[in-house]
Amino acid sequence: MSRINTNVSSLLAQRILGEQNKSLTTSLERLSTGLAINRGADNPAGLIASENLRSEKAQIAAALGNNQRADQVINIAEGGLQEVSSLLLEVQSLVTETANDAGLSSEEKEANQLQIDSILQTIDRIASSTSFQGTKLLNGTFDFTVSGQATTVADFQINGAKLEHGDTRDITVLVTGSAQHGGVFLSAGGTALDLSAATADFTFELAGAKGSREFSFASGTSLSAITGAINTFTSVTGVSAAVSATGIVVKSNEFGSDQFVSIKINNAGGQGGDGIVRFAATDENAATGTTTGFTAATNAIRDEGQDVSATINGIVATTKGKEAVVNTDFLDLSLTLSDGGSQTRASIDAFTITGGGARFNLGPTVDIDSQVSIGLQNVAARHLGSEALGFLDDLASGNSSNLVDGDLEKAQSITDKAISSVSELRGRLGAFQKNVIGSTIRSLGVALENTSAAESTIRDTDFAAESANLTRSQILVNAATNVLSIANSQPQNVLSLL
Known about the structure:
Layout: H1 8-33, H2 44-98, H3 106-129, E1 131-132, E2 135-136, E3 144-147, E4 153-161, E5 169-177, E6 181-187, E7 201-207, E8 212-218, H4 223-232, H5 234-237, E9 239-244, E10 247-255, E11 260-267, E12 275-279, E13 287-292, E14 301-304, E15 309-312, E16 315-316, E17 318-320, E18 323-327, E19 331-337, H6 339-342, E20 347-356, E21 358-361, E22 371-374, E23 385-386, E24 390-391, H7 408-459, H8 463-494
Helix pairs in contact: 1-8, 2-3, 2-7
């Protein structure tokens, strides 16, 4: 059939040419942008998936930045602490040197004290000046704040606590087993030794966690004189004594399973009385009922202390003496109970954490699981030490542990505690950098790589396949153009019929 008004062949060629031009345009767009999906119409489901993956990539990239920033903050804090640690070692050296009393002149002691004063000022200056973008790091700004501390809690340190914004956390300690000293009771049957002869000696060896000492006493020596002699060497043995009625109570200076009292009678000297009595395992003030006579105690009789048993917020605590420690992802703290608190089985409302800590968001999502809080305590001289021993500023001129006329044994104990505290803080920060930040950066790097690969698979152009499509489309466009030209010329053939 031949027509002029309607050229169906031309219409067919036009439609096909339009489709081929559209395919060619799509291939050119994909090759020029590098994206297989440039608009929703290209692949609606793929667009949704790729946008979600892009969002995850942005979160992961930001989290990587957060981790790197956290690492920089910790590096600056560590630098300040390293210098404080070096200064504390110098303090330790000066204290030990000054203890050589007969070998130093008063001028040398005063010179050492001037150095101590200068070091304490420098430590305070480091604590107040170490900062990151103006935020102080070592002056207690990032320490945790608490309220309502119980009287049975002697001391505490919060290393980490996760809190939702504006939340608080109550700390409850359940004491399930009491802390005990190591101890024995020497029952003499009177207020003085009553030996078999005036020339006889009562000799015994007394040992504790720090060391041992042998004592020897003559008949008629009062119990108070014996306790005085024992207490003279308490820093050497780690035990102390007190008169109790017609006997002597000997106890370790500290609580805990690593503390003990051991007594061995080398020569009873005919001393009467009941002998040596151990204390009960659950009550150090109650006798066990088992008594060993002095003449039979030729082998050492030993009684060990006991660590407190406790849970903190339902978590079984690791304990040593009166100290209880928990370390979880949500709560990392240590606390020391008072003597009464550690020896009474009870529930203690220790305190409430109201806020504070250096909080870092290390994960890709903004929630409590992605957040890590670490406490940075104040390292000024007035905060280094402990409530029981004293603090580093006690070594300053005019204070109780100064080097000129102060208590040097106490000064060394305070310095030891200060060095231990700074070392523990540096160790915690190092572990945080290595095991938390370092591991998180590595895992986020892998996640970013895999997420990028998944997003690329969906959204990026496959240049090999698209180049083939371009070539195909170009050939088909050329073919369709030629066909359209032929179809447009067909009506001319109708004229030959006229």
